[in-house]
UniProtKB/TrEMBL annotation:
<dbReference type="Pfam" id="PF10287">
    <property type="entry name" value="YJL171C_Tos1_C"/>
</dbReference>
<protein>
    <recommendedName>
        <fullName>Cell wall protein YJL171C/Tos1 C-terminal domain-containing protein</fullName>
    </recommendedName>
</protein>
<feature type="domain" description="Cell wall protein YJL171C/Tos1 C-terminal">
    <location>
        <begin position="154"/>
        <end position="384"/>
    </location>
</feature>
<dbReference type="GO" id="GO:0009277">
    <property type="term" value="C:fungal-type cell wall"/>
</dbReference>
<dbReference type="InterPro" id="IPR018805">
    <property type="entry name" value="YJL171C/Tos1_C"/>
</dbReference>
């Protein structure tokens, strides 16, 4: 999700179905592109507080072109202050930009590179339910049927942010196109600045993720909000050396925000930027992980924006100082559209707003001021949010495509 000022954000929350939430939680916080560095640091500065020996393993299996092959790299560590007994260097990290290799078509070639875990053990009970995700299969135990039905119905809150001092964020990372190789992200003359972490004000690059203070002063500032899980080899593609994070996958998910959009003009020269026009929008995460704006130096489009990835503007003010905020769906050269309905920009007070993705529909709605952002949402609560009343003058339904 992306936010542009002027805007004050009081709360943010993201909800996913249990299957997608469990998948996200299992991902590592250690970036794929920094994992070699993390291993080297642990080897160089072992923890001497207690003697132990640990085997760190990486495994991968690929099928489809030849007999099954398995690659394993083992690092043996010790905390006794001595040099490590053995260090077998893994193959160099390679970022592949493009479609999946024919060798891995139809295979689970992404089930690899979790060196802090051991390979999962499949029990006879799970073998009888091979298509169930691990969490739901475990919940099928006859001793835990209540938990299974609850987990199958509830949407889990996987990320939450509040700006109440001190600002706190769980499950979020806050980034912007300010990449600086000396701190986070990168820069080159082909693609410009990559995504990087930003400081609490959201306007300067930071070396690591930190809670946003909730204020974007003018339209000159915008931030990209991802999950707190750094990209690994499962990300479809991402720019080498950039600060790249997972977003929220799945065709059913919900986003909530509490915000205020007072009027403030840009302070400096606009340089073509729109002024006093806040917005909240969503992009396919592959776009900002490569290049969010423009093409490369040869004017060749590099992100998937040019090949069908889309954008949904949950709300945006289209003109300088406008009071009307509206929703629009964009897909370059493909299906796009919106209508003329809008809600009045909240000035001097906050508004709560939700976007619920439930295939094949997207619902954007203003919430009651008393609406809470709970730790989970039931299917009934989601159904109540997305219910459409054709007789209501505040409901608008428009179709994209046939």
């Amino acid at each position: 999700m992306h936010l542009r000022g002027p805007m004050n954000i009081s709360q943010l929350a993201v909800y996913q179905l249990p299957v997608e939430a469990a998948k996200l939680r299992r991902r590592s916080h250690v970036p794929f592109y920094n994992r070699r560095r993390a291993l080297q640091q642990e080897l160089r500065f072992p923890n001497t507080s207690s003697p132990r020996t640990a085997d760190v393993r990486r495994w991968a299996t690929a099928t489809g072109c030849s007999p099954v092959s398995t690659v394993t790299s083992t690092v043996a560590l010790t905390d006794c202050g001595a040099e490590p007994r053995r260090y077998s260097t893994a193959a160099p990290n390679i970022t592949y930009v493009g479609p999946p290799s024919p060798c891995t078509t139809g295979t689970n070639a992404s089930a690899l590179d979790y060196p802090w875990q051991q390979p999962p053990t499949v029990t006879p009970r799970l073998e009888r339910h091979p298509k169930l995700p691990l969490e739901l299969a475990l919940a099928r135990s006859p001793h835990d049927t209540t938990r299974f039905h609850k987990r199958a119905a509830d949407w889990d809150r996987v990320a939450y942010y509040t700006s109440t001092a001190p600002a706190q964020a769980t499950g979020f990372s806050f980034l912007a196109n300010l990449g600086d190789p000396s701190q986070s992200g990168t820069f080159d003359y082909a693609f410009g600045n990559s995504l990087s972490y930003v400081d609490s004000a959201g306007d300067k690059v930071a070396p690591e993720n930190e809670p946003f203070n909730g204020t974007l002063d003018t339209s000159e500032y915008e931030i990209a909000v991802f999950s707190d899980k750094a990209c690994d080899q499962d990300c479809p593609y991402w720019r080498p050396n950039a600060t790249s994070h997972y977003a929220w996958s799945g065709s059913s998910k919900a986003f909530f925000i509490e915000f205020q959009m007072d009027h403030y003009l840009n302070r400096g020269s606009d340089y073509g930027l729109i002024s006093d026009a806040p917005a909240w929008w969503f992009l396919n995460a592959d776009i900002p992980r490569i290049v969010q704006y423009g093409n490369d130096r040869n004017n060749i489009p590099c992100s998937c924006w040019s090949t069908g990835c889309g954008e949904f503007d949950a709300f945006e003010v289209l003109g300088k100082g406008e009071e009307r905020a509206k929703s629009t769906l964009h897909r370059q050269g493909n299906l796009e559209g919106g209508d003329s309905n809008y809600f009045k920009r909240p000035v001097g007070s906050t508004m709560k707003f939700a976007v619920v993705w439930q295939f094949p529909n997207i619902t954007a709605l203003v919430l009651d001021s008393s609406y809470d952002f709970p730790e989970s949402l039931s299917e009934d609560q989601i159904d109540a949010l997305v219910a459409y009343d054709p007789n209501s003058w505040v409901h608008s339904l428009f179709a994209i495509g046939k």
